[in-house]
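forwarding from the other thread:

> can someone predict this with S-adenosylmethionine?

sure thing
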Amino acid sequence: MNDVQGPRTRELTMDTFYTDHWQTIEPERLDRYEQLFQFRPEQEPFVDALALTGKTSVLDFGCGPGFMAEEIASRTTAQVFGVDLNKEFMSRAESRNTKKNLKFFHLEGDALPDEINAVDRVFIKNVLEYVPDLEGTVARLHSILSDGGRIVVIDSDWGFVLVEPWGKVRADRFFEAAAAAFREPHIGRKLPGLLARAGFEDIKVKMIAGVDLKGRGVSVLQNMVSYIREFGTMSETELQAHMSELEAAQANGSFMFILPQFLVTATKGNPDE
Ligand SMILES: C[S@@+](CC[C@H](N)C(=O)[O-])C[C@H]1O[C@@H](n2cnc3c(N)ncnc32)[C@H](O)[C@@H]1O
């Protein structure tokens, strides 16, 4: 029996879902993100890549609930900006903010506020897979960097995910079913070319992969499940079988989740000293 559901009751525009689902976020998903996007010690390599001097200004583009921007602002005396498409993230971040050198802005379109100009660093983590105009966004980020400034880009690539006990074929099938949630699901492998075309220099790429045996990554998979349900691209029976298997694997110790992160740094013109 084929029990694949068609798209559900509310109007779903598959073509723009990848950006629409950040404009409006249901309260449970917002709460889940507040947990998922907390700053964690294993994210130190991302902050190290910024090479902060203590006086470097930073833009965190697509900062979400703002925890990373807050962490960065505690390590520099210069101005730090966090900007994001989602209004609720920005109002929650602003209401938590106690730092004088940290400002949040809600972005309504492509343009950045005039105040964000000639920053020393741009930090952009897990955002580029969702932007409607990749080349345009990267060109804008290049233009607001000071000469010698540095960009730090961190992104996944949904062709490089390990979910055990699913195995490769089922994991690929699952992420393909969720692909409309991303403008560019394979962004990780495309970053160096993208930055080079925008005029960045001294491009360096590292891959950082933590191994999750405890089930932290399950909330990432749950988000995917909610997208797949919206799209109707996999039957409910199959989805439930996948998720029950993960639960059993967590209980018997056979669970493993690896979502490598591409960490790419590049400079505008000559790197500063
Ligand atoms: C996966 S979250 C990452 C949040 C944060 N950078 C982190 O890693 O904790 C993606 C974020 O990008 C934001 N975003 C998506 N498209 C955007 C766009 N076109 N301009 C600015 N922010 C965007 C979303 O609202 C969301 O907060």
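DSSP finds ten helices and nine strands in the chain. thats all i got for now
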